[in-house]
Specification:
7-stranded mixed sheet; 23% strand; 5-stranded parallel sheet; 466 residues; 20 strands; alpha/beta; single chain
Length: 466
Amino acid sequence: MSVLECDVAIIGAGTAGLAAERNARRHGAHTMLIDPYFAGTVCATVGCMPSKLLIAAARSAERARQADEFGVMVGEVQIDGPAVMERLRYHRDRFARATRKSFADLPDGTCIEGRATFTGPSTLSLDNGDQIEAKAIVIATGSAPSVPEPYQGLGDRVLTNQTIFELEDLPESLAVIGGGVIGVELAQAMARLGVRVRLFDADTRLAQVRHDGVHDALKSALMEDLDLHLGVTPSPEEADEGIRLSWNNQSEVFDRVLVATGRPPSMDGLNLEVTGLTLDDQGMPKINPDTMQCEHSAIFVAGDANAARPVLHEASDEGGIAGLNAAAHPAVIESARSVVLTMTFTEPALVSVGTGPNDVDFSAVADYSSQGRATVEGENQGLAVLYASAPDGCLVGADLCCPGAEHLGHLIAWAVTKEMTAHDLLSMPIYHPTLEEGLKPALQEICNAAEVSIRNDRDTGVPSGG
């Protein structure tokens, strides 16, 4: 048994943990990064990147099916499932290797392989018997899929985001349990790749969409590709050829079932009870979202482990905040957080920015069902909703489910960050014909609602045909 000492110990070598280690070391701390596997980030291995590779394959298939709309005849689209999954894993593994290579670039002695457990407010025990004494500790253990009890024990036909990308071939049929981000993305992708898909969710709201019209747009888009069953909790059981789901006097056998019912923080086994922190009924400490600090302790929690903003860029930001404050402890400072920006990569993409519809003075809708560039591309569906505050129509948020939403969402998030008004955006160049141009009617509507006069040397219309 060895006793190791450091300024900052980081538990978990994912996105948040790597960011915490980098920033703590950048600010002069002697760091130790602890992980049982050092396999790579969730994003690279079982999250963002493999899912986008599957979505890219699905998009290619869908574009081929739609080609005849443009007078381009390609014949029947055939999907080579093993080839789809082989390409997915090839690039997934390449992304993961790049992450693992970054571990080798860290200073000698930084990476400590093992599973850590708290033995006190600033001490850890590893499963190899070693002890670590640190001045501050960052918890960045991420999250893990939750599998409800009825699906446990049903074997490898039950999938999560950690196993679905290991399939050698596409399934013949797939039931998706859960209509959150993972559920809707993978359900639509699989359906477009020729898999018979049904999606079930006990809630009647998909992906926590904030605006009714945007939810309708997402629901409509998904129903073009798959069957939706909302407000439904099916019962599973083993069947000869798969898993049988029963719901509302109906039943169906599926080749595979993807359980996408959430990814709670991976805090089990840390033994937080010995830290002196006050824990809630979920075993979670109270965390300051602007410092990542737990109460007034030398313990910080960043990334998916705190369940606050479970997306990669936020995990990276939180890791940086936690690393800085852990290195400087007890001189902890609050950081200004970024405007909330979330994306779900359905088609059209679903995006939320900043403040939602219930806390704003003005809102305006941009309809993309007949928008010029969207029609040109054969993608004319969905809408964007902009939110603004009185008195001058300052943009504060948006919800979008429309073509180009992932790019429009960034523009709106940047405008919200800079406290720009609808009038400010209308005063900037907007090229024709573009998807960005589709926002003009909503921006003009906000100006009218806020009684802000649009510059008298600007055309207040939308170009004809656009």
